[in-house]
Amino acid sequence: MALLVQKFGGSSVADVAAIRRVAQRIVETHRAGHDVAVVVSAMGDTTDELLELAIAISPGPPPEREMDMLLTAGERISMALLAMAIADQGVRARSFTGEQAGMRTDSSHGRARLLSVTPDRVQATLREGAVAIVAGFQGVSEDDDVTTLGRGGSDTTAVALAAALDADVCEIYTDVDGLYTADPRIVPSASRVTRITVEETLEMAAHGAKILHLRAVEYARRFKVPLHVRSSFSDQEGTWILVGRPLTAAVEDPMEDPLISGIAHEKSLGKVTAVGIPDRPGAAAKVVGAVASVGVSIDMIVQNVSTSHSATSDISFTLPESDGARAVAAVRDLQHEMGFADVLYTSHIGKISLVGAGLRSNPDVAHRFFGALAQAGVNIEMISTSEIRISVITDQEHLADAVRSVHTAFNLDADAEAVVYGGTGR
Ligand code: ADP
Ligand code: ASP
Ligand code: MG
Q: How far apart are CA 176 and CA 22, in angstroms?
């Protein structure tokens, strides 16, 4: 007998039939003798629809507290309906809001961080032999206000719950059969990855593969929670994320790292450039400090080398497009004081990242990567690397073609097309 946390994303509970199907899977696991705690997202695109409603009511930035009140309603609907569907199949089930499940967070609405997880009521429910269902992506702050963990945050709720319950595994059920070598919506020939290290998964999630919430992967690594990403629409085995803890014999660590585990891509990025900054110590710190002070996270940074006669340099950095205006305003505020020439902004920027533990030991990868981009006629604007990743910034227009070219260049194409069972990819 095992203790499982099963998380179902929005596309898995999009309508009545889907909720019934998910309930059936939970009931089967429960009847096989396992304890099951479930984390559920809002139905289908409910969260997006609630956001649209808020914008329709008031086009300006909405009060953050009320936004969280609104968005958490989505998960409240799906958790109650799922509990009813499970009860209908003859198994007791009880649903809990984030607060009832002991998800304490800080008070940063819309991007709250978990401070503690004390799922006493979930544990009591499991002891009674019932199924516990927890609303994803929500918690309660120290001031007793409802908070959300950020878009896609139900994965993080699931992993945090699995860690607090010391679950044997956290199963992430979604609309594809696991983690693929690229987003199957962009690359239909993508191959399913059977096993991948948590470090590679972190790089994929951090650079746009939205199959898993980045913080969920960080949490899984820290608390050594094995993840199994799979489809709720099929019985196919999915992808195991290895966290350095022995699993069953069926899920052994691979003998050797594959060269490339996957390609992540990201669109809707922007690039800010401060032009002609006097080249002296502290200049870069001042620019990035100003951006951080308005709550914007910078992704890639490049500073070009100053030429001896001008003694100035340019600093460029990328960031989510939605943060562009705030970052530009923050840098402009420094222009007079620091005496630089201009601030430029480019939107519609894309990024492609090649991830693989095998990158460490293979010096030819960058050459093949850039070669594939050149062949696709894609210009590289910036480059950054980690030990197991190479990322390039390109324009957004040719992003999908570029991802497909690189995928083929590294022989990652599968014979059969990947199945996308549902969801809108929003
Ligand atoms: P859920 O609603 O279940 O949380 P998401 O939409 O957040 O599902 O994540 C699943 C989607 O992630 C897939 O439909 C797919 O388009 C996208 N995705 C992006 N990169 C990958 C990848 N490398 N492997 C699989 N899916 C990916
Ligand atoms: N419903 C939330 C969202 O759409 C949380 C989640 O599904 O993970 O972002
Ligand atoms: Mg998701």
A: 15
Residue 423: CB within 6 Å of ligand 2? no
Q: What rounded mean pLDDT belongs to the chain?
A: 93
* Residue 199 CA, ligand 3 centroid: distance in Å: 19
* C-alpha 379 – ligand 3 centre gap (Å): 31
Main-chain phi, psi angles of 390, to 5 degrees: -125, 130
Q: What are phi and psi of 187, to 5 degrees?
A: -120, 90
Express each pLDDT in 191-214 by its tens digit.
999 999 999 999 999 999 999 999
Dist. CA 319–CA 210, nearest whole Å:
17
| 75 ligand 1 Cβ < 6 A | no
Q: What is the DSSP string of 348-411?
A: EEEEEEEE-GGGGG-TTHHHHHHHHHHHTTPPP-EEEEETTEEEEEEESTTHHHHHHHHHHHTT
Beta-carbon contacts of 83 under 8 Å, excluding residues fewer than 6 positions away, are 93, 94, 95, 131, 133
Domains plus CATH for the chain?
3-255 (3.40.1160.10), 264-409 (3.30.2130.10)
CA of 153 to the centre of ligand 1 (A): 13
pLDDT digits (tens, 9 = 90+) for 104-127: 999 999 999 999 999 999 999 999
**Cβ 163 under 6 angstroms from ligand 2:** no
> C-alpha 51: how far from its chain's center?
19
Query: Which of 3-12, 31-40, 352-361 has the lowest average pLDDT?
Result: 352-361
CA distances from 162 to 5, 76, 177, 339, 350 (A): 6, 20, 21, 52, 34
Task: Name the residue of 137, 148, 170 whose CB sits within 8 Å of the most ligand 2 atoms, as the mutation to test its pocket.
Answer: 137
| Assigned token pair, 305 | 């080398």
How many whole angstroms from 48 Cα to the centroid of ligand 2? Answer: 9
Structure tokens at 233: 């629409």
Q: Is 152 in the pocket of ligand 1 (CB under 6 A)?
A: yes
pLDDT in tens, 240-264: 999 986 655 445 555 556 789 999 9
Q: Is 183 in the pocket of ligand 1 (CB under 6 A)?
A: yes
- 114 touches 147 (CB < 8 A): no
Residue 151 Cβ contacting ligand 2 at under 6 Å: yes
- Residues facing 175 on adjacent strands: none
Tokens 């094995």 found at: 226
381 Cβ below 6 A of ligand 1: no
